[in-house]
Amino acid sequence: GAVVSQHPSRVICKSGTSVKIECRSLDFQATTMFWYRQFPKKSLMLMATSNEGSKATYEQGVEKDKFLINHASLTLSTLTVTSAHPEDSSFYICSAELADNYNEQFFGPGTRLTVL
Amino acid sequence: AQSVTQPDIHITVSEGASLELRCNYSYGATPYLFWYVQSPGQGLQLLLKYFSGDTLVQGIKGFEAEFKRSQSSFNLRKPSVHWSDAAEYFCAVYDYKLSFGAGTTVTVRA
């Protein structure tokens, strides 16, 4: 089946620093990847849609300068949280879309970000 | 815009008993519907999906769901719950992007 990985699985950083999270589709090419944020005991909130070779499309209310997304290849998208603050602490999940399968998305295992 | 409602925030069920999780959607056309399961601290795993055709969909781990257009529902069922089914369950509808319900937490008691 289609497998999506994320790295790192957990990261702790100091306030003011930047953190990069990688999302990879391991056995398929993904033109489109998605980044979600999940607060404790809450649903997933779509942050942005990442398209290979073009700029990401951000959802309303998501700061594009704070959450930088790069989709440089058909198997890799990165999310960089810039100048992180404690309120950015969250569980970040990516997904990759399999275009030939009714746009089904396959999810990564998530990254737990803690900003001190 | 499409939306999904999961009316039950938390359900407790005894091991071996049946389970039904409710999902109602709002969408103008024929929806693409999904059920995902999330274990604590993990990503989402697809249980089953409905795109068209047979309205009773079989998924993994013994789960099934029935699409009822007249009721705008896509309820998830399992005849006999195992302790490992304790998790968070999300219903989602796709319209160029996935919209998730708020989720239902399932607790399984011995």
Structure in words:
The complex is a heterodimer of chains A (116) and B (110). Chain A has 116 residues and is mainly beta. The model of chain A has no long low-confidence stretch (mean pLDDT 92). Chain A has strands at 4-7, 10-13, 19-25, 32-38, 44-51, 57-58, 67-73, 76-81, 90-98, 104-107, 111-115. Helix content of chain A is 0%, strand content 54%. With 110 residues, chain B is mainly beta. Chain B is built from no helices and twelve strands. Chain B is globular. The model of chain B has no long low-confidence stretch (mean pLDDT 93). Classes of the chains: A mainly beta (116), B mainly beta (110). Chain A binds chain B through residues 4, 6, 34, 41-44, 46, 49, 91, 93, 95, 102-110, 112, and chain B through 32, 34, 36, 41-46, 49, 51, 90, 94, 97-103, 105.
Question: Can you count the beta strands of chain B?
Answer: 12
Radius of gyration of chain B: 13 Å
The main pleated sheet of chain B reads as: 6 strands, mixed
Query: Based on CA inertia axes, which overall geometry of chain A fits?
Result: globular
- Class by SSE composition of chain B: mainly beta
Series of H and E elements of chain A: EEEEEEEEEEE
| Largest inter-chain contact set | A-B, 22 and 21 residues
Whole-Å distance between the termini of chain A?
A: 37 Å
Q: Count of DSSP E strands of chain A?
A: 11
Residues in helices of chain A, as a percent range: under 10%
Oligomer: heterodimer
Question: Which descriptors apply to this entry?
Answer:
heterodimer, A: 116 residues, mainly beta, 7-stranded mixed sheet, B: 110 residues, 4-stranded antiparallel sheet
How would you summarize the topology of this molecule?
The complex is a heterodimer of chains A (116) and B (110).
Chain A lengths: L3 E4 L2 E4 L5 E7 L6 E7 L5 E8 L5 E2 L8 E7 L2 E6 L8 E9 L5 E4 L3 E5 L1
Parallel strand pairs in A: 2-11
Antiparallel strand pairs in A: 1-3, 3-8, 4-5, 4-9, 5-6, 7-8, 9-10, 9-11
Chain B lengths: L2 E3 L4 E5 L4 E3 L2 E3 L5 E7 L5 E7 L5 E3 L5 E5 L4 E6 L8 E8 L3 E3 L3 E6 L1
Parallel strand pairs in B: 2-12
Antiparallel strand pairs in B: 1-4, 3-9, 5-6, 5-10, 7-8, 8-9, 10-11, 10-12
